[in-house]
Design a protein that fits this description.
heterodimer, A: 294 residues, alpha/beta, Rossmann fold, Alpha-Beta Plaits, six-stranded mixed sheet, four-stranded antiparallel sheet, B: 212 residues, mainly alpha
């Protein structure tokens, strides 16, 4: 089965930042959360993938087709919501959608009407008169209206107030959960995507630190407390280790290996607690940053 | 490509109609006079074209129109041609009004004026092409590459112009004066105009970024 997208050895350079070399694939029907702090390269990855920016090196394919700007059939299979929402500003939402419809054979007016109703999006207002939240909604409707097989979302809730953000996400996830499409959702707010994502990839300073399924992450990462009187040089897979007398607390990225080693060392009162995805993400990204600095 | 052109003309219709209205008013005022009024009409047309294209271009930049339209599933080359054709077709509309004036006023002594109209038409388009090229060069990889490319473009333009100095510079300097212009002068300007728009096409397609 053809991957939704394949990125091989992608390199994009800016004066003070380099993305890559980056390798990333997305299987059809998979939801991948692309997590990273501001400036890590999430938006640059998407810009390269959709052809808004030319990379220095690398190969990118969408459903097996190279993302060649002069052979744009691959764009028919994608819906893209970027970091900036652009329209014909003096035209209404409806007129903008009518313009876009000409380019997508699979466009559905019924779907547009349904999405606009669910989002409570006023289509009779000029784009320049729309609030930030409504601009996001118009972008989402534009991206979803032709039922794309791959949805690329670049921090769609960025800059929205909490009420509007929740409103947008609730409807968006309701729509996305019912489809079979692949979704690539870039964000620095993990709670935005943790509900929907099958897998998470963590990006920092232009490099992918780790990619795992959500379940693997929550299964393998634990907060472990134990008592150990003797000193130990190093505990395997420990990300963080706090000691107070004989009381220890560690964050482990591989619970099974760490537990085995603690048992070998004769640790007592071993108690483990599962961590939330947010907590895990912080440690992964922090470790990535520390690894780069050391 | 046609869909993009249609949308761009529809979107900018008010600015276009305003410019054409000003030119048409000048046309009717000029009709009451002699053929010499062609120079006033050409001047008004050039100014109206230049200002309206400048406003439309600046609005397009502000709205990041390139980013919006290059995201569509149309070949980049087709879009880059469409954005140039918009300028050319717009100018051809103005050219048509001036030719109409010429046809109303023409006598056997006015052939040179026809070439003057063609030269002015080309000159307007060439002038705008320099702005288009410079605007697109902002999206190149480094400022040194940009300045080098600009230098090359200016050298090519200068060579074209100076290489044909006898036929090209006098017509430009003598617009508005009664020195006869020839078919050769008009042809050379057409060649320069086509060359400059081909450079515009190349420069756009070699942009590093379409985020603007």
């Amino acid at each position: 089965m053809t991957n939704a997208f394949e990125i091989k050895s992608l390199v994009k350079k800016y004066p003070d930042f380099q993305l890559g070399p980056l390798d990333l694939t997305l299987e059809p029907g998979t939801v991948l959360g692309y997590i990273g702090p501001n400036g890590s390269g999430k938006t640059t990855t998407l810009h390269c993938l959709v052809g808004l920016v030319k990379a220095e090196a690398g190969e990118m394919k969408i459903f097996g087709m190279p993302n060649n700007p002069n052979k744009p059939d691959w764009k028919l299979d994608i819906g893209y919501v970027g970091d900036v929402h652009v329209f014909y500003e003096n035209w209404t939402g409806a007129k903008n959608l009518k313009f876009l419809k000409q380019f997508y054979p699979n466009w559905s007016d019924e779907l547009v009407a349904d999405l606009a109703k669910r989002f409570e999006l006023p289509l009779d207002k000029k784009a320049k008169a729309l609030s930030g939240g409504n601009r996001v909604k118009l972008s989402l409707v534009s991206a979803l209206a032709h039922s794309p097989k791959l949805l690329l979302l670049d921090e769609p809730t960025s800059g929205l107030d909490p009420v509007v953000r929740t409103e947008v996400l609730d409807v968006l996830f309701e729509v996305l959960e019912s489809g079979e499409r692949a979704i690539f959702y870039s964000t620095h707010i993990l709670t935005d995507i943790s509900r929907l994502a099958d897998e998470l990839a963590f990006l920092n300073e232009g490099q992918i630190l780790q990619r795992s399924t959500k379940d693997d992450l929550t299964d393998s990462w634990r907060k472990i407390t134990f008592k150990l009187k003797k000193e130990v040089s190093k505990i395997e897979s420990t990300v963080n280790h706090l000691v107070e007398g004989s009381d220890h607390q560690i964050i482990s990225s591989n619970f099974e290996i760490t537990l085995k080693q603690l048992q070998e060392h004769g640790a007592e009162n071993i108690q483990d607690n599962r961590m939330s995805i947010d907590e895990i993400a912080v440690h992964i990204l922090r470790e990535g940053k520390n690894g780069k600095n050391s | 490509m046609g869909k993009i052109l249609k949308a761009e003309f529809a979107y900018n219709i008010m600015a276009i109609l305003l410019a054409y209205t000003i030119i048409l008013i000048s046309f009717f005022v000029a009709l009451n006079g002699s053929m010499e009024n062609i120079h006033g009409l050409l001047t008004v047309a050039f100014i109206a074209f230049f200002i309206s294209i400048g406003i439309m271009g600046s609005e397009s930049d502000k709205e990041k129109r390139d980013r919006f339209l290059t995201s569509l599933p149309i070949p980049l080359k087709k879009y880059s041609i469409a954005r140039l054709l918009f300028v050319i077709f717009y100018q051809l509309g103005i050219f048509s009004i001036i030719i109409l004036f010429y046809l109303v006023k023409v006598t056997t002594e006015n052939v040179s004026t026809l070439w003057e109209i063609v030269i002015m038409n080309c000159f307007s388009l060439i002038f705008i092409s320099l702005f288009i090229i410079f605007s697109d060069l902002k999206f190149y990889r480094s400022k040194y590459y940009r300045y080098f490319f600009l230098f090359v473009v200016l050298i090519i333009a200068a060579l074209l112009i100076t290489g044909m100095a006898y036929h090209v510079i006098p017509p430009v300097l003598e617009l508005g004066q009664n020195f006869p212009k020839t078919f050769l002068d008009a042809t050379i300007f057409n060649i320069i105009f086509l060359a400059m728009y081909y450079i515009c096409f190349i420069v756009y397609n070699k942009r590093n970024s379409f985020l603007g």
